[in-house]
Amino acid sequence: MIRRLARCVREYTLAAILAPLTMIGEVAMEVTIPKVMADLYDYGVKLGDLHVVLTRSLELVLCALCSLAFGVASAAFATRAATGFAKNLRHDMYYRVQDYSFSNIDKFSTASIVTRLTSDVANLQMTFQMMIRMAVRAPMTMILAFVSAMTISVKLSLVYCVAMPILIVALVCLVPLVHSIFDRVFRTYDKLNNVVQENVHGIRVVKSFVREDKEVEKFTSISDSIYKDFCKAEKILAINNPLMQTCVYGCILAISWFGAKMVIASGNNPKLGLSTGELSSMFTYTTQVLSSLMMLSMVYVMMIMSRAPLRRTYEILTEEPDLASPPDPVTEVPDGSIDFENVSFKYSAKAKNMALRDVDLHIPSGATVGILGGTGSSKSTLVQLIPRLYDVTEGTLKVGGVDVRNYDLTALRDAVAMVLQKNELFSGTIKENLRWGNADATDEEIRHACELACADEFIQGFPKGYDTYIEQGGTNVSGGQKQRLCIARALLKKPKILILDDSTSAVDTRTDAMIRKAFAEEIPGTTKLIIAQRVASVQDADLILIMDGGTIAAMGTHEELLKTSPIYQEVYSSQVKGGED
What we know:
Blueprint: H1 2-6, H2 13-45, H3 50-98, H4 102-107, H5 110-152, H6 154-201, H7 203-208, H8 212-238, H9 240-265, H10 276-318, E1 338-345, E2 356-363, E3 368-373, H11 379-384, E4 394-399, E5 402-403, H12 409-415, E6 416-419, E7 428-429, H13 430-434, H14 443-452, H15 456-459, E8 469-470, H16 479-491, E9 497-501, H17 509-522, E10 527-531, E11 543-548, E12 551-556, H18 558-564, H19 566-576
Parallel strand pairs: 3-10, 3-11, 6-9, 9-10
Antiparallel strand pairs: 1-2, 1-4, 4-5, 7-8, 11-12
């Protein structure tokens, strides 16, 4: 897991190596300073030797400047490495998500993916920066300070051997208690993001039903849950600080007591005692040793907190897309013919019932096919198999005479244009949105596509025309306008197969008829599949499918179905004759 994420360092490897190396230099200077100060006092101030005072003072200044330089360099390298690591990690995760199939996306909620790309990566960035700085600084300071203290007095250094196990045992006991809490907090963040996303996305519905108070109550409840969990974890971790202070002051008292005796003893026999400067250094080393242990505890806690984000980001990076191009794919779609051969499909391997069952269907290239059926009859499911948004569970689906599983995914989907039931526009100008269909489309091609989709007339009515800015989600255009823009965008692909999934439901019947007439005249070679709720939208089709319960209940032309299909007769009667017959 760690090895996989370590690949995200990439071009920032040098900075990640230099950060701990310069940190070691900073620690070395900090540990040297107490020793120089002890010599300054013992051999300079105490003996009145001005030369020693000046020499040791210059050494102090030099050590301080070197420590500062190493510290600044370490911080700069660590910041560059950590931010670069986070950038690459987000990049890899986002690109991985782009390769997901719909079933992969269904496995993770949208809110969870957003949380993993933002909060989880931010936590890992902080942890990584701490690892290449604090995780190096703390043990190096502890080791060097302890060794330096040992060179001064082995007996006094034994005080650390009493304090350190106490802190380590306390840390080992506290950390498991907070790990489960932090793990729960990150899962709650997913719920919080989901609530915010749903509320903002559906704000019009919220306001129309006057549900603002209910949404605020829902948000507050989850936010309070996060607050309580964090408070609980911090209360447990707070025990660490007073325990640390107790050990530090206990060590200082012990060193003061025994050190004072050793200083007095040094008056009779300097070899057996301790100088005043050395005692002063021992106090500094005490603070450095125990503070570094405290720092190590913070690093450990941070590592524990990052375990959940580490696992969650790893899941995104290692999730294998259910759909992928074969090793030697077909890269050219010959034509728009479609063949369903005993096709059955279910969305999940665990599902008991098939969404589609035993579909046998041949659609010649250039044909116009209408698809009618009630809600839940699997109309959308049928057409989503064509560009291989999902793979068939049983049977074979061919486009242009080739099994869709043998195509390069990009080549197949470039040959199929879909205008989904839920239309989506992105923030940007109308031209920028339309060029999703063809990035190299000229202004004339864009305008022609819009004329076919009956969109040019309302676009010209905008003050800025095709340069009109579309808000996120297309909130500043009507539902019918949004549908026509999405149809124009699909036409710019110049596809071999065009799928309209109930994509004219928000336009009037006159405009719907004009769009269908334009299709028949301007793109006769394109296979057109039209899912609709209105008989008028499909009655001129070469073939009409009646879907019911995941199967094709009937198929034929308008005239044939009026004679043979009770379902079609009922729909036609209710829509065209007003149910009089």
